[in-house]
Amino acid sequence: EVQLVESGGGLVQPGGSLRLSCAASGFTFRLNRMSWVRQAPGKGLEWVSDISTGGASTTYADSVKGRFTISRDNAKNVLYLQLNSLKTEDTAMYYCSKGSGGVGDRGQGTQVTVSS
User: Fold this and answer.
1) Which residues contact 94 (CB under 8 A, 6 or more apart)?
2) Total Cβ atoms within 10 A of residue 107
């Protein structure tokens, strides 16, 4: 059974930083591309970023490019998302997803709230 457990969210001021983590189990993590998606209040799911199996290739939505960094540790089966220069519009529930594009299994999410 695929299990994805996100953590690291919280309340942060504009311009601040957070590091999200996603602990994966129930599948061969190192053989799967992974992604992050988010859902703001009252809005649909928005794809944020993808990472290749080895971590060498990454892609980002234009809205986060240059501010967010996706990475992974295949030895620990953990996916990360570093969030820098946060804006109020980054407020959302963040989910990690098995596979690319955010269309696969997802965890329960971790809330990121950016507010002064």
Assistant:
1) 6, 9, 20, 36, 37, 38, 48, 81, 109, 110, 111, 112
2) 20
| 72 confidence band (pLDDT: 50, 70, 90) | very high
Calpha distance 82→14 (Å, rounded): 15
Exposure string over 39-76, b if 16+ CB within 10 A, otherwise e: eeeeeebebbbbbeeeeeeeebeeebeeebbbebebee
pLDDT at 104: 86
Count other Cβ atoms within 10 Å, centred on residue 102. Answer: 21
